[in-house]
Write a structure and sequence with these properties.
globular, 2 domains, 6-stranded parallel sheet, two-stranded antiparallel ribbon, Rossmann fold, alpha/beta
Length: 233
Amino acid sequence: MNILYNLKEILLEILFPSRCIFCGTYLEGYICPKCIKKLDFAKNYCIFCGTPLTSSENICYNCKKEERIVDGLELLGYYKESWETLVFKFKFENKPYLAKILAHLGKEKIRGRDWKIDFITYVPMVRERELKRGYNQAEILAKFLGKELNIEIINALVLKRPILEQKALKYEERIENVKNAYVVNPKVDITGKNILLVDDVYTTGATLKECAKELKRGRAGKVFSFVICKTLI
């Protein structure tokens, strides 16, 4: 099976040579090694929400005082400059294949945490928007992460009703928009299982927290999260 997969990868590279989305270099991946080195990876941030920290502590002020629903967060960078360009191309320019390099980069971050993960799942998308885009970027990213980490992917969450796009909403509106919008898929059993929940961007955390809350209602163990970027607000 691995031999066939590798042959397929080689054939695709010959027929459709990869090109770096930043500098245009061919045959060195969708982000070439030189451009990967230029990416500003997040460092020294809160282990629960990704907020940058200036002290040696690893938990921010807000996460210390609030009830923590997500048991840990890992990210690649902050939503600005090259990371913003990368996420935009991944989501809106029909480049789902970028999930492969993003998952590869994410694997190292996730392995650096002492997380015991049983399943990987993702934030579901409104069906009409998914059909219009052609894919759910969180789902594709989750599937590539599953391959990188050798962990089973499950469709653990179902969207009960349509929701508005979060990016146009204020903080309180975001919370209300996703409140009770998700439910655990009755076809899966997550009792006592630790879940890695995948999404693309963390802004206020409203979506991830609501999804994590529902997973725990479904008797999941711990719920960790991985996102490409966090928005600085």
